[in-house]
Automatic annotation (TrEMBL):
Range of residues in the leader sequence: 1-20
The protein's name in its UniProt record: P pilus assembly/Cpx signaling pathway, periplasmic inhibitor/zinc-resistance associated protein
Record organism: Stutzerimonas kirkiae
Top-rank taxon: Bacteria
The keyword Signal belongs to this UniProt entry's keyword annotation: yes
Alphabetized UniProt keyword annotations: Signal
Length: 137
């Protein structure tokens, strides 16, 4: 059980680690999204499209695998896992915000609010979808 929890924490931390850049090395937009290795391959549009599709599938599969293991955890450990992820995200957001100018902070706050609203809409949709599926059965 302990190994599973550690593995889940590691998987959850990977996106944050992927965004980290060496100090003094500015990130280009392609680097922030992990596309730099593909950028250097001089791909045509069709190749870019297919790779994008493959990466999307991989991300979906990773989420499903993570969720499958989370579902096996007792409720207390699942709640602790979620709380730790939330606290980590909040700490990162505070640290990022502290680095920004006043104008940048306003933009950051607006983006955070929009993202929060989108997540709430998504949760509501998924809840509605699950209820609809139950009604069909």
């Amino acid at each position: 059980m302990r190994k599973t929890l550690i593995s889940l924490l590691f998987v959850a931390a990977l996106p944050s680690l992927a965004l980290a850049a060496p100090e003094g090395h500015p990130q280009r937009p392609a680097e922030r999204h992990g596309q730099l290795p593909f950028h250097r391959l001089d791909l045509n549009k069709e190749q870019q499209k297919e790779i994008h599709k493959l990466i999307g599938t991989q991300m979906k599969n990773r989420h499903e695998i993570t969720q499958r293991y989370l579902d096996k955890l007792p409720e207390a450990e699942r709640k602790a896992f979620q709380n730790e992820l939330t606290a980590n995200q909040e700490n990162t957001d505070k640290a990022i915000r502290a680095l920004l100018s006043t104008e940048q902070q306003k933009q950051f706050d607006e983006r955070q609010l929009k993202a929060k609203e989108k997540r709430a809409e998504r949760e509501e949709f998924l809840k509605w979808k699950a209820e609809r599926e139950q009604q069909k059965n």
